[in-house]
């Protein structure tokens, strides 16, 4: 199994995981502090999906940190297969959540003539949450591709 | 390069491409016959993304059919890399388009108290378009995974 930047147990991999955590946590914080997110199914789904993302990425970041501390490379094929499946599932859920929230944000912000009409000043929080969710998706996407490549090139 | 069901130039691959085309074309047809899709950015984006999907899948279906007719296997690594990138790009765009449209459809159908309030009987067409877009995404997702695996296992 090849060993390159971003595979489990490397510093790049650890940083990717930490960024996923940070972006997802920021997205939850921004969305959960609005007053009316629970009126929108898509926004509630965004929080659920980003919550899953935080748990998953934090768990893998912890594993990476352990592997780095013990200077041991985690390249067990069974474990990597598990990581690949989990990564792909969370990446797909994150993209779907970010897109559906973005659809609604664009609907209110552009299509229905500006933000102040219906949900007021909370718009910027929604937009920030969507932007952070997309950034979280980009980092988990990079991780997923690297993991899949590691598994397939085995 | 391994040769298994779904790789370019096989009957399974051809059928996957044809289903992608059919689902995407059905989604466009269902969405474009509604009266007010152009008021929603996400619905217009769905049509654009499904249009790209139809062109891409039809092109690859044509290539597969040619390869089948000439009994020649297309396993040029450069060509397969190109297919992989194109597949991943269209799959991501399709998922994003389907999710953002689904977000808006759910908003109108559930969150704002039923469909008849704002966009009336056209709701079923929107829902059909979203469902077909998701089915198109599932088939292109299968194709993408197979293609990526083919390339990585080279």
UniProtKB/TrEMBL annotation, chains A, B:
Q: Does the keyword Cell membrane apply?
A: yes
Q: Per its UniProt record, what InterPro entries does this chain match?
A: CASP_dom, CASPL-5
Q: Which GO terms describe its cellular component?
A: plasma membrane
Q: Where is the Casparian strip membrane protein domain?
A: 7-138
UniProt key word Protein transport: no
Task: Give the transmembrane region(s).
Answer: 42-66, 78-109, 129-152
Q: Where in the cell is it found?
A: Cell membrane
Could you name the domain of life of the organism this protein comes from? Answer: Eukaryota
Keywords per UniProt:
Cell membrane, Membrane, Transmembrane, Transmembrane helix
Protein's membrane topology: Multi-pass membrane protein
Record-stated family: Belongs to the Casparian strip membrane proteins (CASP) family.
Q: How does it assemble?
A: Homodimer and heterodimers.
Name of the featured protein = CASP-like protein
Specify the species: Tagetes erecta
């Amino acid at each position: 199994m090849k060993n390159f930047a971003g595979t489990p147990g490397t510093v790049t991999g650890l940083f990717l995981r930490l960024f996923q955590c940070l972006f997802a946590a920021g997205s939850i914080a921004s969305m959960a502090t609005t007053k009316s997110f629970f009126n929108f199914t898509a926004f509630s789904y965004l929080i659920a999906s980003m919550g899953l993302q935080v748990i998953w990425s934090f768990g893998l970041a912890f594993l990476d940190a352990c592997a780095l501390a013990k200077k041991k490379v985690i390249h067990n094929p069974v474990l990597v297969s598990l990581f690949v499946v989990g990564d792909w599932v969370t990446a797909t859920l994150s993209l779907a959540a970010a897109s559906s929230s973005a659809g609604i944000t664009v609907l209110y912000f552009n299509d229905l003539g500006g933000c102040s009409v219906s949900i007021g000043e909370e718009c910027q929080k929604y937009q920030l949450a969507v932007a952070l969710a997309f950034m979280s998706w980009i980092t988990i996407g990079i991780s997923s591709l690297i993991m899949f490549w590691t598994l397939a090139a085995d």
